[in-house]
Fold this protein.
Amino acid sequence: MEEIILAVVIVSLIGLIIGVGLSFASSVFGVKKDEIEEKVRECLPGANCGACGYSGCDGYAQAISKGETQNISLCTPGGNDVANEIAEITGKKAEEIKPLVAVVACKGNCNVAPQKVEYSGIKSCKAAHLMMGGQKTCVYGCLGYGDCISACDNGAIFICDGIAKIDISKCGACTKCINACPKGLISLIEANKKQAYVMCKNKEKGAAAQKSCKVSCIGCGKCQKECPESAITVENFLATVDPLKCTGCGICKDACPKKCIDLLMLIK
């Protein structure tokens, strides 16, 4: 009986010594928490989208607290509300975040962009893209298998007539869909602003582009010549609009023979 009691006492003493040792080690070697980092992290939406340019919300919060960035207005999903909260915590000035929405630059639906092959592989844009650029004749267009849908946490994307569309009322401008698209068709544009946008990424010469899709840009340059603000340039047979110069007059849209330029006014 005495042996049992002695064993219990010894084990208890060992446990006590180890506990004290661990407590001491934790206080000496433990990593101290950064209160500013924790408070900033609590403000961020937790999308971990990388739109801020950092690895995620944790990375951005750490960069702010350590002074690695002075810009506290990089969280587009959080918008001005989050920027203002961070400003109160850090004492830094928050810049205005203009609302952004995602746009899919493709109008090549099933009626205007023919298929060159019957694809029966994995129903994924990335997988289809690896097979000769996909099933469509236009190797630059939307494949319609919804990799962007899977990436979107807000349920803002749907497929209509074989191409992706975005419900701007649900779009959080997180950039996850941009990273998911193997064709590079999705980008963010400023909301609440009337502006022209080329709904095409085809870089083939005019005749080849027209054969690939009936509404593709053929690089004719008519929009560039007609634009009164010199906001349009044609490079590699593809027109692009400078949003900083565009006034939304719509002249380029009327001049485009392929009707691949839309005049957007996305209200957010």
About this structure: The CA atoms of residues 13 and 19 lie 10 Å apart. The mean pLDDT is 91. The chain has ten helices and eight strands. Strands lie at 100-104, 157-160, 163-166, 186-190, 194-198, 232-235, 238-241, 261-265.
